[in-house]
Amino acid sequence: MENITKDPAYNAVDPTDFPAMLDVNRYGERTTAFDKIISATHEHFWDPLDKKYIDFTQKFDLENEYLINPSANADLKTAIADKLDEKGKIKLVNLDTMWALSSILHGEQGALSLSASLCHILRDPGAQEYAANQTREEARHVTGFTKYIQARWGKPAQVGPALGNLLNELVSSPLVWKKIIGMQMLVEGLAMGAFATFYKESRDPLLRQLMQLVMTDEAFHHKFGKIWADRTIPHLNKKEHELIEDWAWEVFTVLLFNLGSPDQKAWMYQACGLDPVWCQQAFMEALTDSAIRTELQEATNIFRVLIKTLVKAGIITDRTRGNYAAYIDMHELYAEGDRMVGDDIAEEGIKYLIKLNGGTSFVTPSSIAAE
Amino acid sequence: MDQNITKDPAYDAADPHDFPSMLDVERYGRRSTAFDKIISATHDHFWDPLDKKYIDFDKPWDMENAYLIPPRMSLELQSAIGDRLTEKQKIKFVNTGVLFSMSSILHGEQGALALSASLCHILRDPGAQEYAANQTREEARHVTAFSAYIKKRWGKPTPVGPALGNLLVEMVGSPYVWKKLVGMQMLVEGLAMGAFATFYTYAEDPLLKQLCQLVMTDEAFHHKFGKIWADRTIPKLSVEERNKIEDWAAEVFMGLLRNIGSPEQKKWLYAEFDMDWQWAQGAMMEAFTDAKLRERLRDSTSIFRVLIKTLLKAGIITDRTRGTYAAYVDMAELHSESDRMIGDDIAEEGIKYLMTLNGGKSLMTPSALAAE
Question: Which of A168, A251, A274, B227 is deepest in the core (most CB within 10 A)?
Fold first, then answer.
């Protein structure tokens, strides 16, 4: 399979071909497309090790308080809720949050490794410098989520097989398009949706703060994926477009399965004294497609952001539109502007950081146009 | 023998292709605090080669009529090579020699970028991994900056010399932490710190001086990372392990010393001046006896002196290889010196300047940071 390069900014070499990076002509062949995103990094800097930005010693009563509003939990909309008392419900909701945050942590680790792997294959020095910057930002996210999980539960949950396999595929792939669509658009798109949901639904101020800080970086990462799509998708031939479109659908189903399917988190039900097989049945019974569809139509639903990313990037065509339409009102999405649900939260966070860091200019992802 | 020679859990390593081991739930919480201060300091010494607030690559220089560095710094001009050149040719020769040095540095920075990124794939400790991610980003801005300087003064860099190129390929491709850290953080970064200090001290071009100082503000921290590894590793090595590291370091040192300035590595330069590189080599050998070379290395800014001092202070040089280095530098004198390096003052002055420019409040210089 090939790299499907349509813009020189995404030219790639074999990951083991370091000598190609020493080519004297390469250094000067730099796109300016990412310069503004790279330069903006200083003003939206934050440090999970510095209490000036975030203090992980803030307490929360996990036994008696919901970390997120119970109305945002899918399990409690099923017969599973009938089997639990109030304390049991709190435990389930909080463990489900732990599961989601653990998935995010593993995703951030994947993004760190993937960004570092982009440094080995992207030939363009501007794209490479961007990837190096993202590597560093993903590393602080790993630190941030590790510290939150440590403060609340001690350690994360094991990665679900579906997500684990997907991350491994993305990190080890030598193909730029697979890395960028898989990580920058799908996983980051999902993450932006998840962060926006947690920011809106969380009852833990520390979790809300962490979400907003991470979103200040992720919005720029998402922008990198958008620049790739703008410069690539319109130039694809039919075969290439179908390859990318089909793969995106495949990844979408894996992500949907990982986050939504009870069999990926059997340990959680067992910890609440529930039979995972029975829970799976209760879940299937309750969440008919139309119910899921109603859920997804909520503006902050995490999968809605991801689908919108694919729609706006031009990856979804009539070939696969019907697949996604089972979960979301595609007509409504097509009619919407480019702004995402998390954009406002991220921009508010960036403004806060600029002030905290003593910055003077205001560069947000949406104000940056690729040059 | 453990091929990675790990003596401290902060440097535990995984196979570079074993991403699943990074998802181990126990790993995330096993974080060394040794690098936390270096990581946090990165914001205060931030600089951006794309922002004229920090450095303006549009500053001109008369390449035809003005030396970038004083002609006395050129070894070649002190040999019979100089006798065959007019004043204008000497200026061109010296400036083209600087191009070769800058190009070698640029290729070295590219190697450091790729190597730091490769460390992200193998270092298991999340703190060490976050440090490596930070260094990757800093090396990327160095590549940008040296590319911009070279583009402004000459258009494009020269090809990497075979000796440096082979060494960089070996280190980037190696799966071993010790080889990456001794090779890049101590030897190449040590050599680079010496080179930057030399250019900063002697360059006539203010833009080159400024560039070297800005890069040094980062490199001083990278050097610190190598020093932390050495402090936690070298005293715990078995004789076999120590010998392996010591011999490899001596081999790399000799390779760099013999080759980096050798006419064979820059045949194209002599060809530009209608000179045979082998004749040039002979002229250099005639002019520079070991005693004369040693005399130059005594200069505290000699690039190799900084490198040797780094190895010596790290405990990598023992009596087994001391003689190798003693041919070029006064080892007793080096032994008696403190840990401070010639570039430390230049870097710290640069860091203070950046902190003022960035509106920072604390003063985190490499020498003020102790590993926890």
Answer: A251
Contact state of B129 with A140 under an 8 Å Cβ cutoff = no
Residue A109's region, left for phi above 0, alpha for psi from -120 to 50, else beta, is alpha
pTM comes to 0.92
B298 touches B92 (CB < 8 A): no
Instruction: Measure Cα distances from B85 to A121, A250, B88, B274 in Å.
Output: 44, 68, 8, 10
pLDDT at B357: 87
CB B135 within 8 A of CB B222: yes
Nearest CA among B17, B235, B39, B224 for reference residue B126: B39
A116 and B22 within 8 Å at the Cβ level: the answer is no
Beta carbons of A232 and A177 less than 8 angstroms apart: yes
Q: Does the distance separating the beta carbons of B141 and A22 come in below 8 Å? A: no
Task: Provide the β-strand partners of residue A12.
Answer: A122
So what's the pLDDT on residue B236? 95
Which residue type occupies B348? Answer: E
List of residues 6+ apart from A134 with CB closer than 8 A:
A111, A115, A118, A221, A224
Nearest to B25 among A19, A128, A157 (CB): A157
Contacts of A172 in chain B (CB under 8 A): 17, 19
**DSSP class of B123:** B
What is the chain B residue with the closest CA to A160?
Answer: B23
Q: What is the pLDDT of residue A371?
A: 43
Write out chain B residues lying below 8 Å of A149, CB-based: 28
φ, ψ dihedrals at A122, nearest 5°: -75, 125
Contacts of B144 in chain A (CB under 8 A): 30, 125, 129
Answer whether B365 touches A (CB < 8 Å).
no
Instruction: Please name the member of B17, B29, B157 whose beta carbon is closest to the beta carbon of A27.
Output: B157
How far is B28 from A155, CA to CA, in rounded Å? 8
Q: What is the pLDDT of residues B307-317, one digit of tens each?
A: 898 899 899 99
Residue B39: both structure tokens together? 């990581």
Amino acid at B372: E
Interface test with A, best of B136, B156, B372 (most A CBs within 10 A): B136
Show the tokens assigned to B150: 């070279």
Looking at residue B371, its pLDDT comes to: 43
State the smallest CA–CA distance between residue A164 and chain B in angstroms. 7
Confirm if A274 and A83 have CB atoms less than 8 A apart: yes
If you measure CA to CA, which chain A residue comes closest to B47? Answer: A42
Looking at the complex, report in whole angstroms how far the Cα of residue A126 sits from the nearest Cα belonging to chain B. 8
Report which residue type is found at B29.
G
Number of separate helices (H) and strands (E) present in chain B: 16, 0
Nearest CB to A172: which of B19, B118, B126?
Answer: B19
Distance from CA of A347 to the nearest CA of B (A): 20
- Given a contact cutoff of 8 angstroms between Cβ atoms, the answer to whether A303 and A256 are in contact is yes
ipTM reported for the complex, 2 dp: 0.91
| Ranges of residues in chain A whose predicted pLDDT is under 50 | 296, 299-300, 369-371
**Residue A262 backbone class (left: φ over 0; alpha: ψ -120 to 50; beta: rest):** alpha
């932006």: which residue's tokens?
A192
